Dethiobiotin synthetase
Amino acid sequence: MADKENYRMAIDILCCHLGMSFDEACAELGLADDENQKLKEVSDVQQSLMGLLPEDSK
């Protein structure tokens, strides 16, 4: 599998511009569940910093 860091931008685009959930974006990119856990954590931090996640989502 390619470096996971390369998927962060693609996931952000799918989530922010196409309205997909994080899991939908990972499925679209063909990432396995165990591979996307760290990416999900990074995405959650990024989204919380931007104010996109509701407070009770954690």
Summary: The chain has three helices and no strands. The mean pLDDT is 76. Residues 2 and 31 are 10 Å apart (CA to CA).
